[in-house]
Write a structure and sequence with these properties.
The chain is an alpha/beta fold. It is about 40% helix and about 20% strand. It has 2 domains: about 180 residues, 3-Layer(aba) Sandwich (Rossmann fold); about 160 residues, 3-Layer(aba) Sandwich (Rossmann fold). GO terms for molecular function: glycosyltransferase activity.
């Protein structure tokens, strides 16, 4: 089997991280592993193993004929048997399948707004789905949605997994007082609901003035981003809340923090939550998507109601006030992630699926 991971960008998002993780993990486990980014490169490019065959398609539009020809040529020249298309890359994967009917196409649904599936666009996806040999879904709600709305017969739930490079060089020096940092690893998107976190932190800061909040994730420089920055300015939090954009040194950055937080309104199964676990951070997250599969009890972390700044504040303060309890929660979460969300467990399921189709 010669497997191509297909993804539209190499920005530091969840679907992108999974595509890179799969490509790296499959090296040596299948005959050959490849990755193609169709539209845009980004910081995750440097996380890709040198043993992974790589193509940047430079696709400029949905029906970019030159890009489609380049992809077909790459597939033909490298003898690729399976295309594992992540998120929005399903359309160009479908075009490749129509050109080469023997090609196996797997679509991986990473849709992050699984709490709002009623408003999800589906017309094009439904048409393409009859060409998919299999669908992987990152949570149970997405699986049920695909079974009800799409034409693919083979559909399975597949939890995400995370990998961190412990040998990476520290590039991002976090501001604030060492030993008193709260981290939110999430791109600046509305579904991540940074405003609720900022409201909670404003109250936390009244009693814990040395603590700081660190927001790491891509800044799309849009209206949502401007709202976040304006709130920080208006609430006089500029010396306590710091934005860094995307960072290439996630593992080294996580190790500079004491508490990991996710305040999302909607999720699939967030990679950030698994990455927090891998470094043993105590975690406070909202009870959305499949977060409860990772944090299944209070020994492994705390889940709070989404869009509830009061609950979020209290949960974070519990860890600030009880460092030993926080440390123990981080250790339990690490054990859980290593046991149930390791690359060995997930990759075996993926390879079995590749073989079965």
């Amino acid at each position: 089997m010669r497997i191509l991971q297909l993804i539209d960008t190499m920005e530091a998002g969840g679907a992108e991280r999974i595509a890179v993780n799969f490509a790296n993990a499959l090296v040596g486990a299948v005959d050959a592993s490849f990755l193609c980014t169709t539209r845009k490169e980004g910081p995750l490019r440097q996380s890709l193993s040198i043993e992974v065959g790589y193509l940047f398609l430079k696709r400029k539009s949905t029906l970019d004929l030159k890009a489609i020809k380049r992809l077909n040529k790459f597939i033909r020249n490298n003898g690729i048997t399976h295309v594992h298309a992540h998120a929005t890359s399903f359309f160009i994967a479908t075009v490749a399948k129509i050109s080469r009917p023997k090609l196996k196409v797997i679509w991986h649904d990473h849709y992050g707004q699984s709490e709002f599936l009623d408003s999800r666009p589906k017309t094009v996806l439904k048409l393409c789905s009859k060409y998919f040999d299999h669908i992987f879904c990152v949570n149970s709600k997405l699986k049920a949605w695909s079974e009800h709305n799409l034409k693919t017969k083979s559909i399975a739930y597949l939890p995400n997994f995370a990998e961190l490079d412990d040998s990476e060089t520290l590039v991002t020096e976090l501001k604030g007082v060492s030993g008193k940092r709260i981290l939110c690893l999430a791109n600046l998107r509305p579904q991540k609901d940074h405003l609720t976190l900022l409201k909670a932190f404003k109250e936390i800061n009244k009693g814990f003035k040395d603590w700081s909040l660190h927001l790491i994730g891509k800044d799309f420089e849009d209206d949502y981003s401007e709202t976040i920055k304006a709130h920080i300015e208006n609430q006089e939090l500029k010396n306590k809340v710091f934005l860094y954009g995307s960072c290439p040194d996630v593992s080294a950055t996580l190790k500079q923090c004491e508490i990991g937080v996710l305040s999302s309104k909607s999720e699939g199964l967030p990679i950030a939550l698994l990455e927090y676990g891998l470094v043993g951070l105590p975690v406070v997250a909202t009870d959305v998507g499949d977060c409860s599969l990772v944090i299944s009890n209070n020994r492994e972390g705390q889940l709070v109601e989404p869009q509830n700044s009061f609950e979020l504040k209290n949960a974070i303060e519990l860890y600030i006030n009880n460092p030993e309890k926080a440390k123990l929660a981080g250790e339990h979460l690490k054990l859980k992630v290593l046991k149930d969300f390791s690359n060995q467990t997930i990759i075996k399921k993926v390879i079995d699926t590749y073989q079965s189709i």
